[in-house]
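Review this chain:
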Amino acid sequence: MANAAVMGHVNLGSAPLTQPAARVRQRLQSIDALRGLVMVIMLLDHVRETWFLHMQVTDPMDAASVPPSLFFTRLVTNLCAPVFVALTGLGAWLYCQGHGKAEASAFLVKRGLFLIVLEVTLITMAWTSKLPPTFWLQVIWAIGMAMIALAALLHLPRTVLLVLGLAIVCGHNLLDPIHLSSDNPFYVPWAMLHQRDIIALPFGLFAKTTYPVLPWIGVISLGFAIGPWFGKGFDQAVRQRRLLLLGAGMIALFAILRALDIYGDKPWTAKDTPLQTIMAFLALTKYPPSLLFLLPTLGIGALLLSQFEKVQGQGWMNALAIFGAAPMFFYVIHLYLLRVLYFSAMFIWGPNHGETFGVDNIGWIWAWYALLLPVLYFPTVWFAKLKARRQDIAWLKYL
């Protein structure tokens, strides 16, 4: 469990297990499998962004103008960031059980700083070919910042941390009316925390806070706070029942708040057709994630986690757990593979949609997605096994 703070643990060997060890392995395989599922779903979103640049999806999604096929392709990927950040908090709690809070804090700070540097170097260059680049502070940056915040917050009593996480997730939309101009002395920290905006840097550079970090600090704190449900000796049936009730309750609360339309996101209105009305109901704000964005996504995550524990050891669970055991490796290589494919298409066929190359039908996005999954699976298996085998190599646990 040396890397449970961000990766969980997957048993890649075939050695026989004692019954207690098997229970621990199964519990952690469910976490890895859920993390792997969101990585697999994330690939779909990035394939869309690569081959559908000419059909950008706004935020929140415009139910009146976006084709349903594109809308729902984008909608399914909303699950990724909330579930991954919550599992990062849960993994941090598991790490604490084997290493103590002081060591966990130190690891989270180092891991968080590593992710921030990775975001503004390798990952930024994977998203843009322009020099000098705009530094897009996206999900990896937000996870890194949330880790650093959790490094301090995990020393609080669990009840206090739970209340703080709930207050942030449920209350941060009260801050939506606060919009600072660039000449305000608090503009930069506020743009990093809650206001999606552009920050001017020295030497004519710019950073865009695509993922303001405040709500994600709340999510990672809540993930940490439910950690005792996964503790040694905790009854599995009780854990599954709690996750089921938690997930169902969050989805029900979302439906009630969204129907009342009084708090938690931008208002919605009925459209010309029933399908467009459903789309308007589900068009939620991701940047920063609203309360109503987080309730159904985290709720679905809790439901999935409760069910994953019941299907341990099946082939598809093992495959998902592989993706979840090496998520950062998978994240980096898939971005660069997509860039290589995109530039190869531009070189061969040239731009066919203005200045970009793209496909004309959303079906091609799904076809590319289905093709790339097995291509990316095998190097991820190799790296996950390497990381499990070579725990003496310290830097491997950061990937």
Q: What stands out?
A: Residues 19-398 form one domain. Residues 217 and 313 are 33 Å apart (CA to CA). The longest strand covers residues 134-136.
